[in-house]
Amino acid sequence: MLRNIIIGLLAVAVIALGYWGFQEQEQKQVLSINAENNYQRAFHDLTFHLDQIEDELGTTLAMNTRRQLTPALAEVWRITSLAQAELGQLPLNSLQLGKTEEFLYKIGKFSYRTSIRDLDKEPLTDEEYQTLQTLYDHSHDIREEMREAQAYVLKNNQKWLDIDKELQAATEEKPSDNLVVNNFEVMNKNIEGYSEVEWGAGLASIEDLNGEMKRALAGGKKFSKEEAKDVARKYLDLNENAAVHVADTGSGLEYPAYSLVIDDPDHEAHYYMDMSVEGGHPIWFLQERHIRDQNISLKEASDVAQAFLEENGKESMQLIESKQYDSIGLFQFVYLQDNVRVYTDSIMVEVALDDGNVISYEAKDYLINHKERSIDEPVVSLEEAEKSVNPKVAIMEDHLALIENELGDEVLCYEFFGTINDDTYRIFINADDGQEEKVDRLERAERVYDFS
Amino acid sequence: MKSRRFISKLTLALIMICAVAVVAQSTPTHAFTDQVIQQGATGDDVVELQARLQYIGFYNGKIDGVYGWGTYWAVRNYQYEFGLDIDGLVGPEMKDKLAKSTEYNEQFVQRALNEGRKFTHYGGTPKKVQQGPKGSRNKQKGGEQAGQQPAPAKGGQPAPTPEQGQAGEQPTPAPEGGQPQQGGESPAPETPEQAPVPDEEAPVDQNNDADIEKATNVPPGYSDNDLQLMAQAVYGEARGEPYVGQVAVAAVIINRINSPTFPNTVSGVVFEPRAFTAVADGQIWMAPDETARRAVLDALNGQDPTGNAIYYFNPDTATSGWIWTRPQIKKIGKHIFCH
């Protein structure tokens, strides 16, 4: 009797367990199909859009009028950004995709630049046609690789989840040999092989901050580690007893620099700093410590920041922006030469509002760009420049400013602050030809969403 | 320029209020702390500043406790009209003037602020009219204010033609000497610069769109939600790291956004498959602490301890051999940062 009861109970338990297991299994399947479908969609969208890019580029080659070319190039630009987003959704890493992404970026940049230009006045040059031709050829190769990968995925019912697993299991010695991944890698390799010259003006070099930094610092006096320690103590206003640890940065950084960790006995906290070897300039530093409640005002803190810059040889810096984040004051300074704001030479300083100490400093832009310039008198008068501003903008304030335009040249501008309704704008008008160089809508404070 | 007209209308009302206040020997106005208020500041002083400027019609935006551009222009206009140095800094002189020429019902404002109510703080309008639609709890407060409200000019005040106040859309500010002074009769020597104003009752139908909401500063181009998402990623990836290591991880996210070879949005970079382990294993959904948030803020404001790195890895746990081939920049905490 007892035996039968036990058997009965066990039977029920087994059935219940089986049912539960079945449900779990089913749920897992639903989830993995969902995940797989997302990958599949991104992949097929990507191939479709790469197809389209090739198509559109091919058509533009035969076009001659602006009416046709401009929308076609704008279309290329739009599709490129879609393809970029889809690439980012695939479970592949830069090894397989890096160069492809760069290639898409360059197509996008080229098509954007040419599509916004007035092609009636400035038609495509021969070189640009050449670039277009090259882009077309490359996009053709890319399309072929992608189509093959797509056909393989469809024929063999290849799952991206499996690809993902395979890639994660792959090691240096035993790399995965999935055909889809291989095609991506081949595509990437091919693009790597394209010579830089073919890109045409402005496309070859992608922004290279570290390279600029290297050029800017080159030739400065080489500082030893001991000297670096002294500079750091002076910047942070610490006496000789403050312990400083200096290390070289790795070879990956193009300019030679020291990484310093400095003890701050007052706060029982460290400062971290990077300093260039050539010239001994602190590039940035920050302090790691808890910041207590606010004791000093933002105004006092901005005076501290200004004084700090002056003490450390950064004279004639003008405060252009101040912001309070809880008990931290953040200040942006630019160099002021002959009453012209030089926006490229900017320094960021943070001051703790509890005791008024400088806790963060960043001067990369200043170090890269700063030099004494000869600034010419503006050709256009202030009144004329004001006329170039949209008449809907009520102008409130004006300055002279030196900014970097889209082509990377420094241009002297009138800087106007003005408002339309509740929005404030900053508008730069070229002081030589009265052209509108740049318009920014200045940010507003953001409301706090509180659901409690 | 409706507001300017409104100001001039109000000035008379204000004079009367002052008169009443002087007669009633009102308690001394307690206003502002000692700090000089500068653009970018946040806090109660800014709330008070905005409320007072709104009271006399210089400020029509939200009272949100953040000294942004809207407040800046209001302050400058005020300084212009009242002959102060036009620098956007609210110092003792301006605070004095404001305190004397305006009312500030701190309770009313702070409560509305905390309750997230729509409301305004214009002088000359009963508070209950200015309280937004949110509440059944629209209590009528500030009885004393209501009592002072109807301020039609009584005899003795010079009552210039109404056109004067309305004439110019952009009236040039009254230079001190050029205006007929309120003279001996005026019981409000505190506001000698005020131009004579037409005798009209204060308009009741205010624009009640302006409302109050707590607000916060954000770095240009990013929302507070972006900041939160990044803080979660940083917390998930580097919560055991020193502060500088957390800033470094945040800086890598930003460097990736700016890099052509990565997606161009915060979410695109953070959720890119196989990019961050904290995203893959769900650690990103933990609530980040204040340190992670501050690290993100520092990075968004330009701080980059990594020297423009776009990769980092933990040498103890890294599985990919490829990552070791990247040019290394430096090690911060447990992570090696590289290009």
Automatic annotation (TrEMBL), chain A:
UniProt superkingdom: Bacteria
Domain Sporulation protein YpeB PepSY1 and PepSY2: 182-375
Domain Sporulation protein YpeB N-terminal: 27-162
Keywords tagged on the record: Membrane, Transmembrane, Transmembrane helix
Single GO biological process annotation from the record: spore germination
Family annotation (Pfam families): PepSY, YPEB_N, YPEB_PepSY1-2
Transmembrane segments: 5-22
UniProt domain PepSY: residue ranges: 380-439
NCBIfam families: spore_YpeB
Protein name (database record): Germination protein YpeB
Organism: Alkalihalophilus sp. As8PL
TrEMBL record, chain B:
Source organism (scientific name): Alkalihalophilus sp. As8PL
MF terms in GO: hydrolase activity
An annotated GO BP: spore germination
Protein name, UniProt field: Spore cortex-lytic enzyme
Low complexity compositional bias, start-end: 146-158, 167-188
Tree of life domain: Bacteria
Residue ranges constituting the Peptidoglycan binding-like domain according to the UniProt record: 42-98
Segments forming domain Cell wall hydrolase SleB: 240-338
Region annotated Disordered, chain positions: 115-205
Signal peptide: 1-31
Family matches, as InterPro entries: Cell_wall_hydrolase_SleB, Peptidoglycan-bd-like, PGBD-like_sf, PGBDSf, SleB_dom1, Spore_cortex_SleB
Lineage: Bacteria, Bacillati, Bacillota, Bacilli, Bacillales
